[in-house]
Amino acid sequence: MKEYLLPFLAVIISFLLMIMIKGIRDRSFKLLLAFSGAFLLALTVFELLPDVYPIDSPKVLGICILAGILLQIILEFFSRGAEHGHMHFKITGTFPWVVFISLSLHALMEGIPIASGDTILFGIVIHKIPIALILSAFILQSEISIGKAVLFMSAFALMTPIGTYLTTVIPAFETYQIYLKAIVVGMFLHISTVILFESSEGHTFNFRKMIAIIVGLILAYFI
């Protein structure tokens, strides 16, 4: 049950927190991004990559990883980078269907490796919290109503549990799970490196950001 409940609560609690504190400072925003990018990159290297590569056809998995990178690039064309906390656009009063569908597909894929065990589960939950905080702040500052914002975040929160559920009930998901995981690896590699790149300030050294990155790397190692 926790594999369904924790990813859902991570998004909902982050959304409620943003409603209560009414926004997030730019400096905190960048530190959250740096931590999230480092943590996701380390989680991918420490947990997901070793999980997918013990197989007789590593080149096929390499193709899947590259396909995941390409898929994430395509999704970000429609979401405008919402997956990694940089929304380069403004949401109007209408429900942002294109952004929602793109983010939902990404969140759905995140649910696939969760069935592998608690380490991946807790890792993805920790990754989702800063992204959900940033996305919630952006949605609440947009021109859509609070009702539509609640609908958006609630439906988004359900996507990762749905992805996990599909891996347990659809035989094809279980049969090709290792290849689907490899696609997720590619998606995570792209997102994490983009986050780390975009969180930098003209490639200048920032001590707080470096600490956030180091903490993210260490936490992913010991989780």
Summarize the topology.
Elements: H1 2-21, H2 26-52, H3 58-79, H4 97-110, H5 118-140, H6 146-169, H7 171-175, H8 177-198, H9 207-222
Give the proportion of residues in helices: over 70%
Which blocks of ≥5 consecutive residues have pLDDT under 50?
none
Q: Structural class, from secondary structure content?
A: mainly alpha
Task: Work out the strand percent.
Answer: under 5%
Distance between the termini: 20 Å
- How does the overall form come out from the CA principal axes? globular
Radius of gyration from the alpha-carbon trace, in angstroms: 17 Å
Number of domains: 1
Count the DSSP helices: 9
Q: What is the average of the pLDDT values?
A: 81
Q: Give the SSE string.
A: HHHHHHHHH
Number of strands: 0
Task: State the major sheet.
Answer: none
Oligomer: single chain
Write up what this structure looks like.
- The protein has 223 residues and is an all-alpha fold.
- The protein has one domain (2-222).
- It has 9 helices and no strands.
- It has helices at 2-21, 26-52, 58-79, 97-110, 118-140, 146-169, 171-175, 177-198, 207-222.
- The two termini are 20 Å apart.
